[in-house]
Specification:
about 525 residues, alpha/beta, inorganic pyrophosphatase (n-terminal core), Diaminopimelate Epimerase, Chain A, domain 1, 3 domains, five-stranded parallel β-sheet, five-stranded mixed β-sheet, 17 strands
Length: about 525
């Protein structure tokens, strides 16, 4: 594959990227009518009736970025009505996932609304019915054949749903529902004001950045640069850039927001999003930063332990460890996927129960593989590329064998990473003009991957280790022997040592580096071959 890649310059790269889009970007006015979401209009009417009747409404979110963002948008909207809304985000360790029986023990409400969860909440729906609580589920995860017995279920993945674009996150479902609620209550609330939070949710939940998602993220990132929302002010001050990109959110902001739910309590991230002043938002952001540093340390240690447990003969990696931190198993699974180029399931064992996360690769639908072996599980949920699951410790080995048997029926091609190299780019083409060209095709992300280029047998001129713990490498290279000018590559989380051949073959992306008001291109290594 590496030898068959085309040689690229700016013009051919432009032509290549243009092929990804068969039409102009959608305008916000072209976003499909929210009423096309199954049950959404009836659900919005029910919420409006509850507000008019002064009923008690409780919202149940989720502890990841999408769940926190969904909750924050709902809280802000209800604040502007104004109407009291009790918002609960489950604690991963005490409550488990979503609207669980544990959560309902603390709920005293006439109406419960879920955001980014609930599509598998059968027990919670039963309890709500027994207690006379009306339940509206809003979710975007893949439903099973049997649905919870809720009053209304709003989920684009329902077979009965006619919403034309299915790949939306939980925050988008909540936002679309609120647009309908606004109509029913004849409110003068500008729904565009929430796009800064919405963009973060779409990026963090790895939604495909095409169609309406591309439009919403573009507009949301623009809004982030000018919004008076305290959390957006803090984000742009922290990033200190003339323009915020999807990568800034994916690598710098989303992990911080996620760290609260992973290690402590997601309410910290919710309080950041819903802060009424920059002082409060700043304090929460500082706390998120400290939790993120702790998350990195915990993740590093757990990843090392997990690597030692991997059976490389398996098609799907399944590893488990007593005392592994439940909050980082998802990231560790992603690290194993990167390292071994195989789907990975990482489980944390406590009191005879294993809970964990799965991450996939290529065209392997990890949700389908898990579902095919649900007989071993106490719970599971998710989508094609990521899932969560729980089972008894004594069933782990049997589950590992069973899921690998299922995976053995898939073609080898399904396991090939879908991110393709664009071609070989002459490093002399790397300049401000190239940065502007790439910028015109943003936002990059799922289904619109940032172009990745191959550097083959480049001469390594020098290596410097960076960072407080010297865990990152700055590699000075010369692409071709005749070149006088050298160029630098950055390899994060990699200690690169001079190879015997004094050459390097790797893939890389080109990013904008802003430092001291100076903008320069920066080459970031994806993979060293």
């Amino acid at each position: 594959m590496l030898s068959s890649l085309p040689s690229l310059n700016k013009q051919t790269l432009f032509e290549l990227l243009s092929l990804r889009f068969d039409a102009d970007d959608k305008k916000l006015s072209e976003i499909p009518n929210p009423a096309l979401l199954h049950d959404a209009n009836d659900a919005a009417k029910k919420i409006a009736d509850a507000i008019r009747a002064n009923k008690k409404i409780t919202l149940v979110g989720d502890y990841d970025v999408d769940g926190v963002s969904s909750t924050a948008i709902m809280v802000d909207f209800f604040r502007q009505i104004p109407y009291p809304l009790e918002a609960i985000i489950p604690n991963r360790f005490r409550d488990g996932y979503g609207v669980s029986p544990t959560i309902l023990e603390r709920v005293d409400a006439d109406l419960v609304i879920t955001v980014d969860n609930g599509i598998a909440a059968h027990e919670a729906a039963r309890i709500c019915k027994e207690r006379g609580i009306e339940l509206i589920i809003t979710d975007h995860h893949t439903p099973s054949e049997n649905l919870p017995d809720a009053l209304y279920i709003v989920d684009p993945k329902l077979e009965s749903c006619e919403y034309p674009f299915k790949e939306i996150c939980g925050a988008q479902v909540a936002w679309l529902l609120l647009a309908l609620l606004k109509r029913h209550l004849s409110l003068n609330i500008d729904m565009k004001q929430f796009l800064d939070i919405l963009a973060i949710a779409i990026i963090a939940d790895i939604m495909p950045l095409i169609d309406i998602n591309r439009t919403l993220v573009k507009e949301g990132l623009k809004l982030m640069m000018e919004s008076e929302r305290p959390s957006s002010i803090i984000i742009r001050d922290f990033l200190n850039k003339s323009r915020i990109t999807s990568e800034d959110i994916a690598f710098m902001i989303a992990p911080r927001l996620n760290s609260a739910g992973r290690l402590e309590d997601a309410s910290i991230a919710l309080e950041f999003f819903t802060a009424k002043d920059t002082n409060t938002a700043y304090k929460q952001f500082e706390l998120l930063g400290k939790l993120n540093d702790l998350r990195k340390e915990t993740e590093k240690e757990t990843t090392q332990n997990a690597i030692e447990s991997v059976n490389e003969a398996d098609k799907v990696i399944v590893v488990a460890g007593e005392g592994w931190h439940e909050g980082v198993v998802g990231i560790v699974a992603a690290r194993l996927v990167d390292r071994f180029a195989q789907p990975a399931i990482v489980l944390s064992i406590k009191d005879g129960v294993a809970k964990g996360s799965a991450r996939s690769i290529g065209d392997v639908n990890i949700y389908d593989l898990i579902k095919a072996n649900e007989g071993y599980l106490s719970k599971f949920g998710g989508h094609k590329m990521a899932a969560g699951l729980g089972l008894k410790v004594e069933d782990i080995d049997a589950f590992r064998e069973a899921i690998n048997l299922s995976a053995s029926k898939l073609s080898d091609e399904a396991f090939i990473p879908t991110e393709q190299l664009s071609g070989v780019l002459d490093t002399e083409e790397v300049d401000m003009e190239l940065l502007n060209l790439l910028e015109s095709f943003e936002p990059f992300g799922e289904a619109n991957a940032k172009p990745s280029f191959l550097l083959k047998d480049a001469e390594v001129v020098g290596i410097k280790l960076m960072g407080a713990d010297k865990s990152h490498s700055r590699i000075e290279i010369r692409q071709y022997p005749h070149q006088r000018k050298t160029i630098e590559l950055i390899a994060f989380r990699t200690v690169f040592e001079m190879p015997e051949s004094r050459t390097i073959t790797c893939s890389y992306t080109v990013s904008k580096n802003e430092f001291n008001n100076r903008v320069t291109p920066q080459l970031l290594i994806n993979k060293i071959y």
